From TrEMBL:
Its main location: endoplasmic reticulum. It comes from Mya arenaria. May function both as a monomer and a homodimer. Keywords: Disulfide bond, Electron transport, Endoplasmic reticulum, FAD, Flavoprotein, Glycoprotein, Membrane, Oxidoreductase, Redox-active center, Signal, Transport. This is ERO1B-like protein. Its cofactor is FAD.
Amino acid sequence: MAQYIKICFILVIAYTYIVGGSKNKSKNKLLVNRETPGPGCFCKLNGEVDDCQCKVESLDSLNNDQIYPRMKSLLSRNFFRYFKVNLHKECPFWADDSRCAMKNCAVEMCTQDDLPFGLKEEEDKESENKYIEKAQSEDCPTKADVTLGDIDTTISKESQQAFKDWTKYDDAQETFCELDDDTTGNCDYVDLLLNPERYTGYKGESPHRIWNSIYNENCFKAPDQSGYNSQSLTGMCLEKRVFYRMISGLHASISIHLSHEYLFPASTCYGTEKWGQNMEEFLRRFDHEQTDGRGPQWLKNLYFTYLVELRAIAKAAPYLEEEGYFTGDDEEDNAVKEGVLDLLNVVKQFPNQFDESKLFKGNKKEAQALKEEFRDHFRNISRIMDCVGCDKCKLWGKLQVQGMGTALKILFSGDGMGPQSTVKAGSKQKFQLRRTEIVSLLNAFGRLSSSIHAIEVFRRMIS
Ligand SMILES: Cc1cc2nc3c(=O)[nH]c(=O)nc-3n(C[C@H](O)[C@H](O)[C@H](O)COP(=O)(O)OP(=O)(O)OC[C@H]3O[C@@H](n4cnc5c(N)ncnc54)[C@H](O)[C@@H]3O)c2cc1C
């Protein structure tokens, strides 16, 4: 009997060792770092970003060492932290099918008291202005001077109307998404720092319908593809690949954020929920084996989207260098300006920028038609954001799509396309960015930057 128990014990140990070992081995397949060859998650995440002459590794070091810390500090400033958005627009495509019931979906709106002076409604501003004019010395700027940096209040009512009409006309030509701004009404300022993009529990049919609609109906697809399975982009022209990659990059960024700031349920009835990084969730979404080999490519698409927005910021540098970043607090405004100039210096020095001049080339008529199609698809995606059934997801979805639309507007405006081209205020093409476009562009880029930083966090956790 003792002999029998001994044999059983040895067998159990051996079994545990073999099975445990193979489990670990298959785990190790996932837990590869960049240097490890073979299938996995991070091992495929290296080399050139598709359709660009830029390596993932160089973007990692540019972002994590230089851009991410600068963005983090800049985006906490008043000019960038308040975003004006309409979360009450009706979904134009289908009846709103789901409201996320979780408390994590709710968005906290700002009251007028929460806002810095430059962002207050006109009436509140006027009463405060009287106070400022009375209390400050004659050296202080007049009301007209104070509002000079504020795009919508610097000019007479008539000019403002003319300007609005002109802008509307111009936007109809060049914007890639529908903007929620002062003209639409029903907009609220949201403090982005109080409403971080993170896990909300929004899942199931409603988000799938959104993603499905984006990829199926509004993304260009290769003829043999349907649904999300856009694995092979061969046979698609560069413009269509760019479009798909940008959307997929945004999707990857959202998935990374919800895995990086995940809400773990309480482990006991009396325990509390905890926010933290969920490696399992990250791997479920990006691991080579768990995604039929598609996850690493989705991560690469994130780097692609990052490169496109990086180039847009570099191209708009002369414009952004001239911007006033007005909030009504001189000290704050100067600090923002300094932060922006510092960021632009880093962005401009990056040598391997995305080259937008490769897009919409060839036959002029066909190129123009393709550009219009590209813009229409993109505008449609911005309207689909009104169908998102979770307010916090809608907020960040709208902001990021608007930021991406602003990046595209910049890329296809200005004194031409290609590495040396730029956009300036008051240029021939009367190029202009509204406050909301600048805020969304920088915040959208900040999201991508924070995603690339989060990949590094996950990489370190498993290596
Ligand atoms: C605009 C928007 C914003 C959202 N914001 C948040 C948020 O802030 N917090 C939150 O918790 N949830 C958010 N969600 C929900 C989240 O994106 C997922 O839909 C949800 O977590 C369910 O995930 P899933 O595993 O079913 O796959 P999903 O992410 O819904 O993806 C559906 C399918 O798309 C394919 N796919 C996945 N990733 C990619 C990619 N990068 N490129 C191409 N194809 C891909 C896969 O085949 C996958 O099965 C948002 C959804 C939308 C539409």
